[in-house]
Amino acid sequence: MVALFALTTALLMGLAxxxxxxxxxxxxxxxxxxxxxxxxxxxxxxxxxATGAWRESGPQLWYAVAAGVLGPLALxxxxxxxxLGPMGVVSPLGSLGVAVPFGAGLLMGERPGLLQVxxxxxxxxxxxxxxxxxxxxxxxxxxxxxxxxxxxxxFGAVMTLIAEASxxxxxxxxALFVQRLTNVAVGGAALCATVRRxxxxxxxxxxxxxxxxxxxxxxxxxxxxVASNGTYSLAAQTGPVTVAAVLSHLYPVVxxxxxxxxxxxxxRGIQATGAGLALAGAVLLATG
Length: 288
Known about the structure:
The chain has 288 residues and is mainly alpha-helical.
């Protein structure tokens, strides 16, 4: 079950990233984050009320609050790093956040077998290569590298924290609701700050109409993102965290394949090699 939940996480995260990438071509990134997460809050709020999940409240929800604070900050770091570029380096390096939940698993006493260690090495190499890193060109600015590593740490920490925020399914619904509510609060504050500095909150061409016509995609991105956190939490609770962490971080492969199929983007040789290695590592992890 751990492999099933973790691979579902990778699928959902990869598709959410793909949809988010399309949306940020139409609207400011922070607006996309706040709008998509607001939709997720509304849906999760309805689920919490319908299931009576509020009864699961307790001190463990502070993990969800921490995850909600870190999430938007990690996204901001990631977007700033992408602005400094080059994107072909920043994007795959962002997946190195796998080190956080993987390290948490080791600290909890998990000891993967030799075959699983080999699977981790192969899969992580594949994940990085699947993003199509640029091997030549202008050097990466130190600030871009630091922002990317900060974002990677944030992404990995969010997954680790949300897995600790609940131990039951209703508790998971409540934890995800609290996390996304905090996401909206932090992201909304950041959006207000950027507007005060003169940055637009709405697309310069089309304004609110662009967001309205993008509502189905915004809903998909928000709900797929929150669902991926939920399936990762289930994966971490049903099997070794070290395995769940690596398998769930196969999401860059999903994003690359989605761009290949839906946008007809050409797959570079290094990306095809990375995708193959990532899948090979997944097989080793699942069978090890």
